[in-house]
Amino acid sequence: MSAQATTPNISSAMQPNNAAADLKPQGEAAAKVKPCCVCKEEKSARDECMLFSKSSDPQDACKDLVGKYRSCMASFGFNIA
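Request: output the structure for the sequence above.
Response:
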């Protein structure tokens, strides 16, 4: 027997078959950020205002913070209704 016949193919052993790698976005899609990862300060301020507002209408009292959050999200390409 020759030494090559018993030696495993090293190049295939070093590169496992990773099916998940094929599912990851490539190019421009990979560069996009997730909505949960942007505008964290604006979202936190908006949520705190809405949750702890002493106003009878928290939505009206916090509309400036809601507007800032919407503007921030829009700057990253997310459209919030």
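The radius of gyration is 25 Å.
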